[in-house]
Amino acid sequence: MVRWQSGGMAVHAKSERLAELTIALSLATDPGTGQPMEHGLRTCWLSLATAEALGLDAATRSCVYYVALLRFLGCTSDASETAVLAGGDEVAFNATMAPMLMAQTGESIRYFVRHLAEDLPPHSRAGRVARAMSDPGLERRSLSGHCDVAARLAVRLGMALAHAYERWDGNGLPAGLAGEDVPVAVRIDTVARDAELWARQGGWPAAAEVLAQRRGHAYDPAVVEAIIGSGRRWLTDLGDDPRGAVLDSEPALVLTLRTRELDNALAAIADFADLKSPFLRTHSAGVADLAVAAATAAGVSEAEATTLGRAALVHDVGRVGISSGIWNYPGPLNAQQWERVRLHPYLSERVLHNCTLLEAYADLAGCHHERADGSGYHRGTTGNRLSFGARLLAAADAYHAMTEDRPHRPARTPADAAEQLLVEVDAGRFARVEVGAVLDAAGQERRQGRPALPAGLTEREVDVLRLIARGRANKQVGVALGISPKTVGHTSSTFTPRRGSPPAPGSRCSLWRTDSCCPDRCRGWGERPMRRRIGPGNPPISV
Fold first, then answer.
1. DSSP string of 305-373?
2. Which end of the chain has the smaller Cβ count within 10 Å, N or C?
């Protein structure tokens, strides 16, 4: 059930609506459970229509509304364990098993055995199936853990959430409630969620058949009757803007979030995202603290520092939609895995842009892996198009990540992380101003200047050479460094050997055959190396 607590919530008209925040969380949990974005919104819409058809009062409809949006808030609690069990991709496994969440035990077990780790070789599958079947408490631990984590996070949003997986027949979790002892919000949302899922995957006739089969078992018969009778029409009435429709349909008991409680709510979202991997625990909060301190060291205004800190708290919410098997992988990633990794800032940005309360932080959060030379992701934005706040967040994220353990490497010491960040400055991926602010905030010394450069090169000439060595065209180099393509061409011509003429030893032209100007080109930076050859046109990229 859901009940409202007095700490951070007020029941009066304000712009900081709690519904905005919970809609964003619903959009974030959808990919983590293997569902398309807006699955939770469509479930909420169907649940509200059912509640109205059953004649429930406004307070109860409000409970129905928030249960539908937050029911899967604990989905990250055992993501890593599920990834191991499923052969690496718990998101795909969750998607496969989703129709069986409220099935009868025999049907669910047969389906589980048929689909567990189905992409692995037979001998590997057999071992995983045997281990799973020898642990009869596996499902109970998993779903009970989901309930516990969801309840803890909900408390930090100012509400209490429990009994998310109870069933009408008493065979649910965590308390085994039965019949009308199961909160009505849970009874409605359980049926509405499955009706939306089955209708989307198999059409309304298939959904109606499943609801009829589970009536009196997992489902409240009265709820089943209401949804079978009108659910198809209700889903059609939703239209093509589920987010707007759900926001506008919040029951009259509108809940709001006081401004002073916003940071607590964002910290809860940060922990929700960081639960995705044991290597990420407290990462978002640590980045936020460092980014705010760096912003202060750089002399930005208090308001800008606050905005940056809030963006840092939610910058990794998109990680939820990427398999824990990738975040926990102990070696270099292949190209397909890297494409998944590159998606997570985009998911963060999209989730935050769908919340009026959080959209001010969306663009900053979406830029936390961008780099000044255009080698970052997800857009490959260059330095002159990145705000100072975005560059500061990226530098804070990179430094903090390097000081944390990762599956493929131990944590670097603060001094080592500082040195590596300065190498990134030399490589043109960060500017000295944001890195200096981060190092000041972290209590690390700045390196004064760079080592003597070969053949009398200036720093600007080295910057040009680095980018050209990575396959950048003159125009791209000019955009990255803020100079004209003509200047780039003139600069590069001074150290480009003539066709057919070998460069003289020690000359500028001989640098093309040495590591002098790109000593870092084979070094993984930030968090994660990729299983590929790093060289011209393929700079290393951070997770």
1. HHHHHHHHHTTTGGGGGS-HHHHT--S-B-HHHHHHHTTHHHHHHHHHHT-TTTGGGHHHHHTTT--TB
2. N
R_g (Cα) of the chain, nearest Å: 27
Distance CA 243, CA 247 (A): 6
> What single-letter amino acid sits at 190?
T
Task: Note the pLDDT of residue 499.
Answer: 47
pLDDT > 80? residue 462: no
Average pLDDT rounded to a whole number, residues 350-358? 93
Say if residues 249 and 47 touch (Cβ distance below 8 Å).
Answer: no
Please give the structure tokens belonging to residue 412. 């670097």
Judge residue 418's burial from the number of C-beta atoms within 10 Å of its C-beta, 0-12 exposed, 13-18 middle, 19 or more buried.
buried
Q: Are 474 and 485 spatial neighbours (Cβ–Cβ below 8 Å)?
A: yes
The CA distances from residue 354 to 153, 284, 348, 438, in Å, are: 21, 20, 10, 30
Provide the terminal-to-terminal Cα distance of the chain, rounded to the nearest Å.
38
Rounded CA-CA distance 541/530 in Å is 8
Statement: residue 539 has pLDDT above 70: no
Q: What is the rounded distance in angstroms from the CA atom of residue 214 to the CA atom of residue 191?
A: 9
Residues 183-213 as b/e (b if ≥16 CB within 10 A, e otherwise) read: bbbbbbbbbbbbbbbbbeeeebeebbebbee
